[in-house]
Amino acid sequence: MAITVYEKPTCTTCRKLYRLLEAEGVDFDKVNYHVTGLTEDEIRDLLGKADITAAEALRMREDGARDLASADEDEIIAAMAERPELLQRPIVVNGDRAVLARPIERALEVL
Predict the structure, then answer these.
(1) CATH number of the domain encompassing residue 50
(2) pLDDT per residue over 43-94, tens digit each?
């Protein structure tokens, strides 16, 4: 089982998720998308696997997020590709399924 967590290492929620996954005995890879970045296609793929819209994945506490909330899907995704901090975290992917792990227990849905 290849689990990938899209995360930010300094994120408290991400660190709580690591502890949960480790307690469950789950091996996982981490992708710090704040460093590596994500393309618009990668973001679309993650959103599709999680069955959520870009607006639902928008991190509202970031500057400019509220202005983007009413924008169309393509505009939000373009902004997320340019500014990775706009994308909520952590996102847990297992094959063709993903979940925005907020709360962290949602990660168990894709294991």
Answers:
(1) 3.40.30.10
(2) 999 999 999 999 999 999 999 999 999 999 999 999 999 999 999 999 999 9
Predicted TM-score (pTM) of the model is 0.95
Catalytic residue selected from 11, 20, 26, 108? 11
Taking alpha carbons only, the member of 22, 16, 15, 14 closest to residue 87 is: 14
Q: Which residues pair with 31 in a beta bridge?
A: 6
Residue range(s) defining the domain that contains residue 80: 3-110
Q: Considering its fold, how many domains does the chain have in total?
A: 1
104 closest CA partner among 11, 31, 10: 11
Within 10 Å of residue 25's Cβ, how many Cβ atoms? 6
Q: For the chain, what is the largest distance between any 2 Cα atoms, rounded to a whole number of angstroms?
A: 41
Known active-site residue 11: yes
